[in-house]
Fold Transcriptional regulator, TetR family.
Amino acid sequence: MTNTSTSPHRAARAPRRDAAENRIAILDAAISELNHNPDASLETIASAAGLSRRSIYGHFSTRDELVAELNDRGIARVTAALAPIRHDDARVALALVGARLWSEVEDVRVTAQLAIRGPRREIVAEGLDPVRRGVLAIVEQGVAAGQLRTDIEPRTLARLIEGAALSVLDEAVRDDISHGEGHRLVILVALSTAGLSWREAAELIDASPELALEAQPPASSRLSERSAGARP
Amino acid sequence: MTNTSTSPHRAARAPRRDAAENRIAILDAAISELNHNPDASLETIASAAGLSRRSIYGHFSTRDELVAELNDRGIARVTAALAPIRHDDARVALALVGARLWSEVEDVRVTAQLAIRGPRREIVAEGLDPVRRGVLAIVEQGVAAGQLRTDIEPRTLARLIEGAALSVLDEAVRDDISHGEGHRLVILVALSTAGLSWREAAELIDASPELALEAQPPASSRLSERSAGARP
DNA sequence: AATAACTTGCACACTCATGTGCAAGTTATC
DNA sequence: GATAACTTGCACATGAGTGTGCAAGTTATT
């Protein structure tokens, strides 16, 4: 396998820059191909990346290794997006969780589902644990402040809110919802699940400029900007 | 393939009863094995059914045919459970949709997800269309009666409610939620998504005896009651 | 321009699953 | 108890995907 890291010793020459780019191209292609079909072959991924199957093995010794790296990057992305969320009003914080999740995962829904429910789910769950703790903390804060429902155990409620947000992603697949509408829906659903009536949710959103679409930080960018198209 | 139907002509003898039982055993085993691992092989399914792989081909000419029949039965089950739902109060009707869905799909969550999102999704969607129309009709009725939220388009809202119910199923996988708790949660989540606050939901539930766990019709029974255990 | 770093194409070994053919058993049904 | 209806085990063909070795190319870097 190609050694991309800067070896401490014995580097007759530095690794080539284009190799690193190809590595990114592979990851990128893998994201979109696996999102299209979770069982996509390396052949498919390679050609979407504009490379030969053989050369994938120059970057990843195994299919599993490739998938694992994809998961790791996804986890890092989500963690980075959700960890900094903090707000006095737990309801606003939860709405923000939904919104950030939406913008990060929007274009990798299928892969995300697979990561969460597929064979690697335990490892992924472990990686996602800090995020989950964060959401749980928000819920507990909200319950303590009397802002959230108390008819569902905080632990369960936290999961349900995550799940509700993800289900918006799923519906978005079918209806091809716009970025803006997805943003709006995911916030509404998060607040509804948290226990607010739809009118309360509307009030809260009106009163909270930080929930506006324009107030959101840009999603951590994709690895590269090429549209992954295979060429014959 | 074995001809289970009563042929009009040329039946030297009636098909054997145990063959029909085995067919059911295969379907049953397929349900639970595929729910455990959506890529389970026929070998796995066969041995879970207590049969040899070879004899599966006596009942289904193809793996696809087996899966297709599974889907058809699932669709029929869900349709049968949801179609008769009717109630003056759309909110109660939606809660019932959630509850019935829960009891029908509870033990086949993974398979259900696969059916809805997997390679057969289009065919499944077609089969599920009547159910979806039904839910949509309830939502429209509720909007017209001023019982439901109006900040989300009925079509979308209908989907979101379905999705919310399904996400309870997902959470149930992790937490190993009891039948009763699942019933309660799915109703709460459906009502929340429909726009009610958690206190309004509680009031409605209190006032609606038909939502009680005990008031539910039994789930259309599984094909057989054997626990699907493979024997070496 | 020399050379190490990559990519490629091909051949090959391997695994795993599907689907068939057939002969030899069992077993329900008549 | 005769017989058709099933089941089984085995051998075999097929196909798809993964991972490796290697020789022959390209290309970035020095």
